[in-house]
Amino acid sequence: MSEVTMAQALNEALRNSLRDDESVLVLGEDIGKLGGVFRITENLQEEFGPTRVFDTPLAESGIMGFSLGLALRGYRPVAEIQFDGFIYPSFNQVVSHVAKHRFRSRGRAPVPLVVRVPFAGGIGAAEHHSESPEAYFAHTAGLKVVVPATPLDAFDLLTQAIRDPDPVFFFEPKSRYWSKEDSELGADSLAMGNARVVKQGDACTLIAYGAMVPRCLETATAASEDGVEVEVIDLRSLVPFDLETCAKSVEKTGRAVVVHEAPLTAGFGAEVAASLAESAFLHLEAPILRVTGYDIPYPPAKVEEHYVPSVDRILGAIDRVLSF
Amino acid sequence: MSEVTMAQALNEALRNSLRDDESVLVLGEDIGKLGGVFRITENLQEEFGPTRVFDTPLAESGIMGFSLGLALRGYRPVAEIQFDGFIYPSFNQVVSHVAKHRFRSRGRAPVPLVVRVPFAGGIGAAEHHSESPEAYFAHTAGLKVVVPATPLDAFDLLTQAIRDPDPVFFFEPKSRYWSKEDSELGADSLAMGNARVVKQGDACTLIAYGAMVPRCLETATAASEDGVEVEVIDLRSLVPFDLETCAKSVEKTGRAVVVHEAPLTAGFGAEVAASLAESAFLHLEAPILRVTGYDIPYPPAKVEEHYVPSVDRILGAIDRVLSF
Amino acid sequence: MTDGFEDAVRLLDPSGRLDEKAAEALDLKEDDLLELFRLMLMTRRADLESTALQRQGELAVYPPLIGQEAAQVGSAYALEPGDFAFPSYRELGAALVKGVDLVDYLHFYRGTWHGGTYDPLETRFGMVAVPIASQILHAVGYAYGSKLDGSRDVSMAYFGDGATSQGDFHEGCNFAAVFGAPVVFFCQNNQWAISVPVSKQTVAPIYRKAEAYGFPGIRVDGNDVLATYLVTRQAVQRARTEQVPTLIEAVTYRLGPHSTADDAGRYQPKEQVEQWRELDPLDRYRKFLTERGLLTEEVKKGFDEDANKLAAHIRSGIVGAPPPDPGDLFEWVFSEKTKRLEAQEKELLEEAGDQ
Amino acid sequence: MTDGFEDAVRLLDPSGRLDEKAAEALDLKEDDLLELFRLMLMTRRADLESTALQRQGELAVYPPLIGQEAAQVGSAYALEPGDFAFPSYRELGAALVKGVDLVDYLHFYRGTWHGGTYDPLETRFGMVAVPIASQILHAVGYAYGSKLDGSRDVSMAYFGDGATSQGDFHEGCNFAAVFGAPVVFFCQNNQWAISVPVSKQTVAPIYRKAEAYGFPGIRVDGNDVLATYLVTRQAVQRARTEQVPTLIEAVTYRLGPHSTADDAGRYQPKEQVEQWRELDPLDRYRKFLTERGLLTEEVKKGFDEDANKLAAHIRSGIVGAPPPDPGDLFEWVFSEKTKRLEAQEKELLEEAGDQ
Ligand SMILES: Cc1ncc(C[n+]2csc(CCOP(=O)(O)OP(=O)(O)O)c2C)c(N)n1
Ligand SMILES: Cc1ncc(C[n+]2csc(CCOP(=O)(O)OP(=O)(O)O)c2C)c(N)n1
Ligand SMILES: [Mg+2]
Ligand SMILES: [Mg+2]
After folding, report:
1. Same domain, residue pair A172 and A230
2. Ligand 2 atom 13 nearest Cα
3. Strand D246-251 vs strand B237-239: parallel, antiparallel, or unpaired?
4. Which residues of A touch D167 (CB under 8 A)?
5. CB–CB of B126 and C163 under 8 A?
6. Looking at residue A309, what DSSP letter applies?
7. Any CB–CB contact under 8 A between C266 and chain D?
8. C-alpha distances out from residue B138 to A86, B52, B66, B146, B170, Å
9. 0.90 cut: is pTM over it?
């Protein structure tokens, strides 16, 4: 039992997977000697050698298509895309092949692989280093989309993702890489595909994933000080989407606010809100609100604080649903 | 006044634009001598010469980035992507540059361009020729996303799109290319960004775009035979999204069904449903339902009829909201 | 008009005369020489049958390969059973050589199932890849996996002249060179990418593009089955034993339309087609075998029967073949159905039941 | 360790001695010779100042170009005012030469505004392009537009060795060749793409990649400002007058870290850095100018003053510069705000007002 950051937890999950399964390969840009720009793959090349852990040329479509080929040959590639904003060159390989390979081959040629993507903002980075592209992937049938919010879950979910028979897009909230948790890795893990109620409450349900989960917990604490107990749900995976856990909560609270950093329009929050509004219709006492990034390109670092949902904005939404 | 197909209307809009504005260029794969695989650019190269209307090498990222460069130099490129399923290689250029260029340059270097994409299914085509990728673009801030449903609107909207100062993704419902309308092109045009109530009714609102508009009208006729008058809204553009027109209708009908071909999860229907459920909350007498493609890759031609929303499925949804 | 053969390796001239000296490197027995012909003949026949089936509405669309039989058969014949071929959408001939049941292959074009109904891992023949050049990277990744396994398996990527314009072609070649992947890049330069002639696709000769990656690039007369075989065989060996990739440009010609949906008359000059018809790969090879005395009437008859049987097999397998069970649509999206997919499947099956 | 110069054009050897014969093609007057030095000196100074500003928290991040001054100044100096340069993210030196106010440029790195605050059309210097190789296609499209206009303007695309692996590099080169676009592809091969050495990025020499497109590829000693200028000038002329693109590989070295966020000590061999320090482009050129008697004490003093002024200008423009008005965020998404954006702006401004 000791303190572990999300970065360490991810590193450990990769290490264990490399150790337990010979077919696991870790690849990407600068993930070898450098250990990745966020050091998530630190020391892995040293430990497992340059055949299992290796740098690729600078080409994301290449990384994706090459990984698919490796998966076909029986390997379990775990590819890192250096930043959210650099996954787009691979989009054709993702949508046209990775997502469809099991389907097209009637199950004969699945391509289990994991794509790790440090994502979202809040770290004062330069342009293209703070994006939240998860909805593009959630809308693509055939991909699993996973987002951990805590070190423990990062460890569990990455371990599960690597063992999963399907392609998993694993979005790591980079602003949480250095967050610590005091717990034993792997001690008690919930299966991918299940959301988790991380705080109980009855006034309203907050639904979030990634870095917005701790943000919602902060908000919940602030609300609590005003005597309002909100329930907080960590989605953990967008696909599969655990509507049941969300609906159960809303049946109790009658109100919901969905929070994410990605732009509002056609973001994953729309899916959550639309699904919930349908399935919990008779329990809703107020409209479901979304607190999200705006429909603008991710802003420059100096003003990003106005873009990423803040405790105040979430509190504002809670107020509105409570006073509806 | 004569019969015109959507294909002819689009061809005519391109012809007029080439004639009226010297800076307009038409480019893409096989759009020159061949006139495009759907003949939308038929005779244009002959009429305007190979400098204004030209084939490119086979590379969609190339087409997109090259068009951006042309736009920067003051041209108005109208690029054709041969099929929906072949737009993905260009995604990085779209998301990282086309969508952001005006924003990044504080308005100094906008890149007005139009990308025409024959999209969606229902024509018995081979794999990758029937996809509905519009949500990827609607979720990308900085892009306008337009979808005509009729020949008249195809003419108007394409003409407007080419004149628009912003990048416009223009999705052409290929199953409607040969649909005819008896009317004068350009006689009475509604500005892009406005939805249109194409049939009045008070029992329920159907909201759709592209080929699903005529499908909804068919459904409305069928419902009418049972004495149920549904209202049908043609969105016309997803971005800008005309929520007001939709909300006004739902305030009257109290019920809504959103219809599209793209997969359900995080499709544009989620945005419509979530926004409407929020803004028309007090008027809703039943949950908003979505009738969409399933969360699977677009299926093989022999079974696509089960995937594309049918009159029966839409009627089923109307039944459910009416009997809720 | 039929230029583009500069620097091309050629063993048989258009009249079927063999360059004996150059042919010394060939490791083919008489049986092989005949088998190459048989495969080309069957390919031609299967291709024509497929076009006919499309005309009759039994296939949704079909991209004929007529004119490219030598390129496909010669190259695929150079592969060993363990080698994996990654096709584009026009490689019915290569599929045949790799032992894929063509009915299973053609189910792709019937619209029965994306990827056809054969097992790509068992046949070591990838699924039809429509997004141009995308399959090239799969071939490279698979090849590198073979190398990591310490196996001798080689990958072969098939693609067209138009595909060389795509970024994935470039990234694939570069990855292969950097990782020393045992792969052969086999480009059938059939002079056209739908309506765009190769002269508007690129300026440099395709085989010269290998210079950009630091591995050999070779141009071969793709209508000469022996030269194609020889060059590919050497490339496969280089990949297998030295882990050095090769780019092969097989100069050939698309005698038919791009696909049955295409109207090639709009852009393909008639005289060009006529000139290339003179270079028909089957005619040339038939002359050679006949002159050698290998293609006796009896042998010919046997081959014709084989071709007829194949055509009949295709026809009986395709005509009226049932569509897939709609429930199949949810079976292989993931390893296990999600709740959401279960609900959607239920909805679809209920509606399908209603009909 | 400092190999990679095979076939490279070089006018000045590392000791500053001029190859008089090769230099005959140079069209530079004494003023130009000095101006090149002044620009290199200012670039070095501005670069160091920027790194310092980042260390002090005034910039969010900064990618130093130290070691690449000759490559950037020499190449950009070969452009005429109407020519358009499309940079990656490391081209502060080229920006200076093109007349961009470096404060406006550095606002990109301060996080004030993506794309900086200069006018790309007026300065004919594109916005910083981070997605590797993506700007290459813009340069080609712009160049083709210039050609359609019948103008004499040329485009220049700047990118690194790592960028040559991307599909966009390939597609850009091919489009340029096919359309005869007046563009120069200027690759600064600084030996590293973050931690990946060029030997693991690609097998073939970069300048040889031009073979794949059918236009000239030239390697130049990128630490030799005169050679870089000469080679670029010739390429620019070829583009301007013949519409023939050129790929230039300027062999140089990244003496600093990839960016201020990078720890190059983890991968960059110290000895390699030391060896390249010996090839410092400023030292070499200073020796040449001094020996020629051009760089008098007085001239030197004047240049030092210019560099100091520039550094002071940068410092005063950047330190404490205010963030943009949050309302600006909605101003340029579209030509006109949509209703949805208006509502979102209101929400943001209300919240910002609350704070
Ligand atoms: C990414 C992508 N863009 C466009 C297309 C449409 N398309 C299908 S085949 C083809 C031409 C291909 O030419 P080539 O590579 O020479 O192969 P060939 O058809 O001649 O065998 C095009 C443009 C596609 N399939 N994929
Ligand atoms: C598409 C994309 N992928 C990854 C990155 C992350 N990245 C930034 S710079 C860099 C290395 C670039 O190397 P090179 O092209 O040699 O240019 P240099 O930095 O040496 O000037 C990488 C991988 C990026 N910016 N864009
Ligand atoms: Mg071709
Ligand atoms: Mg570099």
Report:
1. no
2. D193
3. unpaired
4. 59, 61-62, 89
5. no
6. P
7. no
8. 19, 29, 22, 9, 11
9. yes
C212–D215: do the CB atoms touch at under 8 Å?
A: no
Q: Provide the pLDDT for residue A1.
A: 54
Is residue B190 in some structural domain? no
Task: Answer yes or no: do A300 and A177 share one domain.
Answer: no
Report the pocket of ligand 2 as residue ranges, CB < 6 Å: A 29, 58, 60, 82, 86, 89; D 90, 130-132, 159-163, 190, 192-194, 254, 258
CA–CA min distance D261, chain B (Å)? 22
Let me know: does A7 contact A14? Beta carbons within 8 Å: no
The answer to whether B143 contacts chain A (CB < 8 Å) is no
Contacts of B49 (CB under 8 A, 6+ apart): none
Is there a domain that residue B202 lies in? Answer: yes
Name which residue leads in pLDDT, B1 or B233.
B233
**List A97, A101, A128, A129, catalytic entry:** A129
pLDDT score of A2: 79
Q: What is the pLDDT of residues C5-22, one digit of tens each?
A: 999 999 999 999 999 999
Residue B146 domain-assigned (yes or no):
yes
Instruction: Collect all residues of chain D within an 8 Å Cβ-Cβ radius of residue B56.
Output: 175
Residues 6+ apart with CB under 8 A from B47: B15, B18, B53
**B183, B206, B238: which is the final residue of a domain?**
B183
Return the amino acid letter for A77.
P
> In the predicted model, is pLDDT for residue B213 greater than 80?
yes
CATH number at residue A153: 3.40.50.970
Q: Which of A95, C209, D142 is nearest to B101 (CA)?
A: D142
Of D178, D202, D213, the CB nearest to C178: D202
Please check the confidence at residue B185 and state whether its pLDDT lies above 90. no
D132: CA distance to ligand 2 center in Å?
A: 5
- Give the ipTM: 0.98
**Arithmetic mean of pLDDT, A299-308:** 97
User: Which entry of D267, D284, D286, D313 is annotated as an active-site residue?
Assistant: D267
Q: Are residues A166 and A204 in the same domain?
A: no
Q: Which of B183, B208, B231 is the C-terminal boundary of a domain? A: B183
Tell whether A254 is within 8 A of chain B (Cβ). Answer: no
To the nearest 10 degrees (0 to 180), the angle between helices C69-76 and C30-55 is 130
Phi/psi-derived region of residue D216, left when phi > 0, alpha when psi is between -120 and 50, beta in every other case: beta
Number of structural domains in chain B: 2
Domains and CATH numbers, chain C: 22-324 (3.40.50.970), 325-355 (no CATH)
Decide if D131 and B244 are in contact by the 8 Å CB cutoff. no
- pLDDT digit string (tens) for B297-323? 999 999 999 999 999 999 999 999 999
As given in the structure block, the two tokens for residue C10 are: 């050629």
CB of C47 within 6 A of ligand 1: the answer is no
CB-proximal residues (5 Å) to ion ligand 3: C 160-161, 190, 193
| A221 and A178 housed in the same domain | no
b or e along B20-55 (b: 16 or more beta carbons within 10 Å of the residue's beta carbon)? eeebbbbbbbbbbbbbbbbbbbbebbeebeeebbbb
Q: Indicate which CATH number applies to the domain containing B216.
A: 3.40.50.920
> Residue B236: inside a domain, yes or no?
yes
- With H, G, I as helix, E, B as strand and everything else as coil, classify residue C131: coil
Position C1 scores a pLDDT of 41
CB-CB under 8 Å, A243 with C134: no
Judged against a pLDDT cut of 80, whether residue C206 lies above it is answered with yes
User: Domain residues for B138?
Assistant: 2-183
Please write the tens of the pLDDT for every residue from B147-176: 999 999 999 999 999 999 999 999 999 999
Same domain, B139 and B211: no
Whether residues B242 and B130 fall in one domain = no
Q: How far is the CA of B8 from the centre of ligand 3 (A)?
A: 29
- How many residue contacts between A and C have a Cβ separation below 8 Å? 137
Atom of ligand 2 nearest to the CA of D164: 15
Q: For residues A86 and A36, state if they share a domain.
A: yes
Q: What digits encode the pLDDT tens for the residues A43-97?
A: 999 999 999 999 999 999 999 999 999 999 999 999 999 999 999 999 999 999 9
pLDDT reading at D1 higher than 50: no
Asked if C134's CB is within 8 angstroms of A97's CB, the reply is yes
Same domain, A26 and A84: yes
Decide: C90 and C34 in contact? Cβ < 8 Å.
Answer: no
